[in-house]
Design a protein that fits this description.
It is globular, with a radius of gyration of 33 Å. A ten-stranded mixed beta sheet has the order 12-13-11-10-25-26-9-31-7-43, sandwiched between helices. A seven-stranded mixed beta sheet has the order 32-33-34-35-36-37-38. The protein is an alpha+beta fold. Helix 8 (about 295-315) crosses helix 9 (about 330-340) and helix 18 packs parallel to helix 19 (about 790-800). The protein is about 25% helix and about 25% strand. The longest helix has 20 residues, at about 695-710. Helix 19 links the parallel strand 36 (about 780-785) and strand 37 (about 810-815). The protein contains 22 helices and 46 strands. Bound molecules: S-adenosylmethionine (SAM). S-adenosylmethionine (SAM) binds near residues 260, 538, 566, 583 and 586.
């Protein structure tokens, strides 16, 4: 624990403890002093050695210029074999080419290899097949002839395009930074504060002009977006191909929608057919509609595309685990065979998830994990660490270890074992009481001591306790029975160690349970711990992910989950010092994952080399309990061979038991919240697309589509059963800034105006202002600004428009599935738009010149009455405060989960280190006091129950006293 990087103390910024008198943290107190106070400190792991390309922050996207064309992925037709000789299928061409090569190579001398690999290219230059030798050509031809899974649309889809989009950083989160802020962190420590967030503080010019050029220090990442698009971005903006060690993928299990997606942050109930319970997440809706349209066919396409990109991301030693249920197991295996190759299949793992089933026939009580590696199973390349499970003392175990050696030296079969007072007792049903009644007793089993075959010094008789035993005709002892040099033979040593059992006519080996009280994990996973109260409807038991991760990765490795959900993979990866990226299309699970990670506590596994972080590995040690039981992370494994050869037992590392530094409470390290944002078509923010005719056309068609949507769905559902009904939706005549007009027929008839978009990015202040001015001139009663996102200043303008003498305005959040063309036909208006309110935030200046923020309420606009409604602040699932908002990325300096015990674990773990009021703030609606920052403004982000984010920015100079 002594070596540290200069300037990167484990405390990251707490190096000069003397200047930190204001903080209640006592970093060095590890002696349990202070009146029994454990004196624990909060720390996190940092991945010092890893980097990732610099990503731009949200807000810089209007200037972001490094656009990239969509990426085309081609299926390797030799992996997707359809040997049809009749049509336009390229397989025919490949097969004929292979046959030609085979006859050519056959004429070459053995081993029939070409000087240079031969390639077959498509007209556009793509390599369709490559072959180096006769053997390879034969193998490829054979593959072409194998049976394969076919479905509608597969044959036509030899390639597909994925938009290549940059990722923008929306939020930086760090539990340690929150803890520091709460304890009155001083502004002069600003630099270390950014360090706590893992924020490299790149100037805006660098972010816009040189994004993706610099390597930054690694921070873990939650990413909002479709897995296909995000994986493509990781591959083509960041060059992460071949760098991911393990992928855990838990996709929607099938084509029924509701059971896979949770529409509310705080409710795990998902009722089918209830409109309100339908998610409004665009990518999921899209995926759902795809699967709805072609059922299983589209589902298979959807998965195959994602597997293909997943494979590209994996390193040669990497593995992918896919979690799936009984219904689609066979399809998914076929898909994985096709994309990864059947030689890369490792095993299918049934995972028991419930104890019994209720159907009239038999329903499965398990799910499956399918494990494929990036390289063939027998390549020797696959990273693998065995995981050992402690053997459970139960009836199963006693079925194997049927005997007990009592402390007085007696050997008894368990069935015959009686209580010490001689009374009958069936210990098979109470195994633990064997050790209570007979402390020091040892369970053992009787193992065979012979095997087939003849061997020198082993296929000879052996005398034990005056009787001669023979291994039997054509057999041998498992060790030597005589030695050449007169030293004790293997059998002698077994006898000396008391390991021989003189059985019925044969000698056997006495194998104690405590020779190694563990068993290597098999593929039968029926006893899983790790199940805490789930927060997400389809949450995976964390022990499942833990086993996969421990088996196939090392500390510091990169783990990816394209289906994050509530963040189980991220949580487990964080626990075990792996780097992680987790992707989800839905804001609801990501809101849950963010909270789970931010408030988590983990053991601090001691690092072998602190200067390297987890990549240097964890410390494992052999330790024994007072009762002499092995309790450390290194356990001796005594076998017949060790005793017979007089060798020390082999030491096995129990990967899940590193040494723990108990004076440290480990919290999640810094992580980012990122999202794909399509690069803008309107860089100047003037409403005019400026990047060419194609974009202008796209913009026009977008406005047309929006008009059509409003016509088809003229009823805006705005929550609480309220609606606004639109009539006569049309483009306004001779307009400069408005996108549509309509009549509202609730009560009086009034003309209202709309401003849309842009399609790619947020509504700008300029666009809203122009629309409001024009609407004012033309006498519209109301302006609806409809966008997929909105910039904070535009939001403020909408809030204030009536105050400013402009028409009242409402921001209407459009779900991005509006961009999905004809998929819209089934959409209900309540799924298309939601009318967003704004948090009512008070910023107060305190007498000591610090500030505090109070979340007063959530203002929701009721368009039916054109009046505002309120939601109590402590009813929001979460709200965050950035005490020094830079107008770009949101640094979560305080995170509040009102009326919940979300922070309780950390509070308990740091008991006595912080004043209770600190934690009370985090479960409430008033922030802890904070000092002014250099940007002179704060931002408050409220997460509503659908995972929507509502942002308000306040200037410090407007604070009330
Ligand atoms: C079965 S859940 C994963 C649950 C997760 N294993 C956990 O422990 O919470 C599947 C997740 O995939 C997400 N999802 C579905 N389609 C997606 C897509 N195209 N891209 C990214 N995520 C997607 C859903 O939003 C959902 O949260």
């Amino acid at each position: 624990m002594s070596k540290r990087r200069r300037g990167e103390t484990r405390g990251n910024g707490r190096g000069s403890a003397g200047t930190r008198r204001s903080t209640p943290v006592n970093p060095k107190r590890r002696d349990g002093g202070g009146g029994g106070n454990p004196g624990r400190v909060a720390e996190n792991y940092r991945h010092y050695e890893a980097t990732s390309p610099m990503r731009p922050e949200i807000g810089t996207q209007p200037q972001f210029r490094k656009k990239k064309p969509p990426t085309t992925y081609r299926y390797d037709s030799s992996l997707s074999p359809a040997l049809s000789w009749d049509g336009q299928n390229p397989d025919r061409e490949i097969a004929e080419w292979l046959l030609r090569l085979i006859s050519e190579a056959a004429a070459l001398p053995a081993p029939h290899a070409f000087d240079q690999p031969r390639e077959l290219r498509a007209a556009d230059g793509t390599v369709l097949a490559a072959v180096g030798s006769l053997q390879e050509a034969v193998e490829q031809l054979r593959r072409l002839g194998r049976p394969f899974l076919d479905w509608a649309g597969k044959a036509e889809r030899l390639s597909f395009d994925v938009p290549t989009l940059p990722l923008f950083i929306h939020e930086r989160l760090s539990t340690k930074a929150i803890v520091e802020t709460l304890t009155g962190h001083k502004r002069d420590k600003q630099q270390s504060m950014f360090e706590l967030f893992g924020d490299p503080q790149h100037p805006i010019t660098d972010q816009t002009l040189r994004a993706y050029e610099y390597p930054d220090k690694w921070v873990n990442r939650l990413v909002l977006g479709d897995s296909l698009v995000v994986m493509n971005s990781l591959l083509h903006y960041e060059g992460l191909g071949g760098q991911v060690q393990m992928i855990y993928m838990d996709p929607p299990y099938n084509v029924t929608f509701g059971s896979n997606f949770q529409p509310f942050v705080r409710s795990r109930d998902v009722s089918h057919g209830d409109d309100d319970h339908m998610t409004r997440e665009p990518e999921m809706v899209k995926a759902y509609r795809d699967t709805w349209e072609l059922g299983l066919h589209s589902y298979l396409t959807y998965l195959r595309d994602r597997f293909l990109l997943a494979r590209e991301l994996l390193t040669v030693s990497g593995s992918i685990f896919v979690q799936i249920n009984d219904e689609n197991l066979h399809h998914v295996r076929s898909l994985l065979d096709e994309v990864f190759g059947d030689d890369c299949f490792i095993v299918t793992i049934p995972i028991k998830k419930k104890g019994s089933q209720k159907s009239d026939l038999i329903d499965p009580v398990n799910d499956y994990l399918i494990w494929y590696a990036r390289s063939p199973r027998d390549s020797g390349l696959i990273r693998f660490t065995p995981v050992y499970l402690q053997r459970q003392l139960d009836a199963d175990l006693l079925g194997e270890f049927k005997f007990v050696e009592l402390p007085d030296g007696r050997d008894v079969s368990i069935v015959e074992l009686r209580a010490p007072d001689g009374t009958e007792r069936d210990y098979r049903f109470r195994p633990q009481s064997i050790f209570e009644d007979y402390p020091g007793a040892r369970l053992y089993r009787s193992n065979p001591l012979t095997s087939g075959g003849l061997r020198k010094n082993q296929s000879v008789p052996y005398e034990y306790k005056g009787r001669i035993y023979s291994p039997g005709p054509g057999r041998c002892w498992k060790t030597t029975a005589i030695s050449d040099d007169g030293s004790p033979s293997g059998m002698d040593r077994l006898a000396q160690a008391g390991r021989l059992i003189a059985g019925e006519g044969q000698l056997r080996f006495k194998s104690y349970l405590d020779d190694f009280g563990y068993v290597a994990l098999s593929n039968w996973w029926d006893r899983l711990g790790g199940a805490s109260d789930p927060i997400y409807v389809v949450q995976t038991n964390s022990e499942i992910v833990q086993r996969c991760l421990l088996m196939t990765t090392l500390p510091g490795d990169l783990v990816l989950d394209p289906t994050c959900g509530s963040g189980t993979t991220a949580y487990v990866a964080e626990q075990w010092g792996r780097r992680w990226i987790s992707i989800d299309t839905s804001r609801v699970p990501l809101a849950l994952a963010r909270q789970r990670l931010l408030t988590a506590t983990f053991p601090f596994y001691k690092l072998k080399d602190e200067t390297r972080g987890p990549a240097g590995g964890f410390d494992y040690a052999r330790r024994r309990s007072k009762a002499g039981r092995e309790v450390g992370g290194v356990a001796p494994h005594t076998t017949l061979e060790h005793i017979a050869n007089n060798e020390p037992p082999k030491e096995r590392v129990l990967v899940d038991r590193p040494e723990i530094e108990r004076s440290i409470v480990r919290v999640t390290g810094p992580f980012t919240f990122e999202a794909t944002i399509p690069t803008p078509v309107d860089w100047e923010g003037d409403g005019v697309p400026d990047s060419g005719a194609a974009d202008a056309e796209a913009y026009g068609s977008f406005v047309d589509r929006m008009l059509e949507v409003l016509r088809k769905s003229p009823v805006l559902h705005v929550g609480g059963g309220k609606t606004v009904t639109l009539r006569n939706v049309r483009p306004p005549a001779k307009t400069l800034s408005l996108s549509a007009e309509a009549m509202v027929v609730n009560g009086d008839e009034r003309a209202v105006a709309f401003v849309f978009g842009p399609e790619n990015g947020g509504l700008t202040q300029l666009a809203v202002h122009e629309a409001l001015k024009e609407a004012s001139l033309k006498g519209y009663a109301h302006v609806y600004a409809v966008g997929f996102a909105i910039q904070p200043d535009a939001r403020l303008l909408i809030e204030r428009s009536a105050e400013m003498g402009l028409p009242p305005a409402t921001y209407v959040q459009a779900t991005p599935d509006l961009m999905m063309g004809d998929l819209l036909k089934n959409m209900r208006s309540s799924q298309i738009f939601s009318v967003c309110g704004l948090p009512d935030v008070e910023l107060r200046r305190l007498p000591d010149k610090r500030y505090e923020v109070k979340l007063a309420k959530l203002n929701l606009f009721d368009p039916a009455t054109m009046a505002a409604k309120h939601m109590d602040a402590d009813d929001v699932p979460a709200w965050f405060l950035d005490t020094d908002y830079n107008s770009l990325c949101f640094h979560v300096s305080q995170a509040f989960f009102p009326r919940t015990g979300a922070w309780d674990d950390l509070r308990r773990a740091l008991r006595g280190e912080y004043d209770d009021s600190v934690w009370d703030h985090l479960a409430g609606t008033v922030s802890a006091p904070f000092e002014a920052g250099e940007h002179g403004q704060v931002a408050v982000k409220v997460i509503d129950d659908r995972g929507n984010e509502l942002l308000v920015v306040k200037r410090l100079r407007d604070a009330t006293a």
